[in-house]
User: Fold Aldehyde dehydrogenase from Caulobacter henricii.
Amino acid sequence: MTAPIELSHWINGERRDTGKLESLNPSDTREIVALAPNGGVAEVDEAVAAASAAFDGWANASPEVRSDVLDRAGSLLMERRETVGRLLSREEGKTLAEGIGETARAARILKYFAGEALRLHGQNLASTRPGVEIQTYRQPVGVYGLITPWNFPIAIPAWKAAPALAFGNTVVMKAASHTPATAEALVAILHEAGLPKGVLNLVIGGGRVGQAIVDHKDVAGVSFTGSQGVGAGVAACAVARQARVQLEMGGKNPLIVLDDADLDRAVAIALDGSFFATGQRCTASSRLIVQDGIHDRFVAALAEKVAALRVGHALDPQTQVGPAVSEDQRETSYRYIDIAASEGGRLVTGGERLNLEAPGWYVQPTLIADTDPAMRINTEEVFGPVASTLRVKDYEQALEVANGGEFGLSAGIITQSLKHARDFQRRAKAGMTMVNLATAGVDYHVPFGGTKASSYGQREQGFAAADFFTLTKTSYSAA
Assistant:
């Protein structure tokens, strides 16, 4: 086995401290991937001070300087995507193909925002008063705190940090506790690309690091991705001191399958959206809402595909579904499977404990049928390779079921009806809609976010990122 990586905080452009907190390989828990420090309030205070000191120089630098750093970092990360992707897979449990793919996506995010650094624009407007001109333009805000999750341990840190940096802000980032090595790899590459000292700081640690960032008086804005419960606390603390806040808090995403759907295509889409990436995607298709006429054939065909999925070590090229990221996450999946069965759900396939050659946090992909909308399996986020099916009589009932619940991130429909597809796009209560596509899988250059309890604040990614990471100033002038 490979020796553990010694991780450090990054504060004011320098590696600081090492530690003994173990980051284990979820595919083989005998392997320690990294040893990480356990930061707290003191490290956050130092990081915020460094970011504050670096703000004026970075904010007033030519946008070409910021663009060049992000572009170089994107190129370096793309060149090393196999090495970094392998680290990601060892630490998070995604298959190697998924780990490399996510790393490439992060590289493209960096390059996209390298371009956006040069494209910030304003407006020239006529005043109602003769001889007066009005201009609007965007300015950086200050120090941003970024609290990132483990399920996309390099893509989400990239899509939060890249726009913050591109538009002239400085950053203090908290790495997810399960995946600190992947986050540190990204930060190291950005510094190698020429990022000045103090512009991007990384503090590794548990919840106290996140709380210290949220509470810090000199942090102008907080971007958080994680659970509803934690997100609500982040919002309350940030708003109390009038800091900007942006939250992404998961989903319980519906996929409607109508009678006119192509069966093979519907099964392939559901399999992808529900089970790949071990179901650990906030956009996963966790509720499969199927019309009467196709329901039984769909469930039987999907169950066959689910049962055939190969679960195994993330680095095994034959593996299709890797392990859960942690023991707690594995147990959460099995607990919800038991709850669904106790509430009347029918276990079609899966649900058994797996004992593979290597000790890991594996979950057998599971399909549960004959559920109703009120069951907990359909109202609470499992975040594992577990999907439930709900039978409906027609499109209107399907839409009603899809729009139920507290979440509203992504929603999909599989149909050959243009009428139903267009109606769904208008009426689905979700921030993103998918027609004949999996609910999971979004591009890096367009806005990302949901409705209801899934999101709060401005959208992430794409052109929408400027709304959160810049301040619009309106300037009047007279001759």
Q: What stands out?
A: DSSP finds 14 helices and 21 strands in the chain. The longest helix spans residues 96-116. The chain has a mean pLDDT of 97.
